[in-house]
Amino acid sequence: MSNFFDLVIEETGDIVKSIYDHPFIRELSVGSLSQELFTYYIEQDTYYLVEFSRCLSIIASKCDSGDIKSFLSFAEEALGELEPIHNSFMNNKGNNINAISPANLFYTSYLKSVCSMEPVSIGIAAVLPCFFIYRDVGSFISTNRIHDNPYNQWIDAYANTYFSESVDKIIHISNQCALQESESNRQKMVTAAVRSSTLEFYFWDDAYHLRKFGNFK
């Protein structure tokens, strides 16, 4: 019998491949992505990570497991280390919430809803793709990047051992949670992970096309 994460990998394989093949990722890996597109992505990700951190706190507040609480605290600290990297690319512009992308609004709203309203296990499944997809993408870009890539600082943040260890931990936690759930809730966990993975793709796509919520031009 496959464990939970094996099922997630099976169900999200085409999504992850589409992310690898996306022009944002391809151009980022060879350093040809425009500064305008990357800065817009960073602005979106800065907003996203604030909301994502809140989701981790929501899960922790509902959780009785010391191991999970410890991991979530560790994860929040790891995400906090991305702030100076983001600031270096944003030129201290701050984050303009009025310029939020449709995928960003959808994704963060979805995560907050799941983490607030569903069992802890499903919340963990929903936040899982932010970890494992970024590790996979970071590794992919790191392998294919040019030596003097202007985005090396960002690439290194997701291709390092410290971040990889956090991914391994949440994969283990998600597998353990799935073992304790009913078949119905295990399927809901898979569904949550697939939906978040899909929104990861659209997050990149919105950044590449500079989409802004409410902009119909």
TrEMBL record:
Tell me the domain of life.
Bacteria
Query: Could you tell me which residue ranges the Thiaminase-2/PQQC domain spans?
Result: 14-208
> What cellular component terms from Gene Ontology apply here?
cytosol
Pfam families reported for this sequence: TENA_THI-4
InterPro entries in the cross-refs: Haem_Oase-like_multi-hlx (IPR016084), Thiaminase-2/PQQC (IPR004305), Thiamine_Salvage_TenA (IPR050967)
What Gene3D superfamilies does UniProt report for this protein, alphabetically? Heme oxygenase-like
Q: Which PANTHER family is this protein grouped with?
A: BIFUNCTIONAL TH2 PROTEIN, SI:CH1073-67J19.1-RELATED
Q: Per its record, how is this protein called by name?
A: TENA domain transcriptional regulator
Q: Which organism is it from?
A: Candidatus Ichthyocystis hellenicum
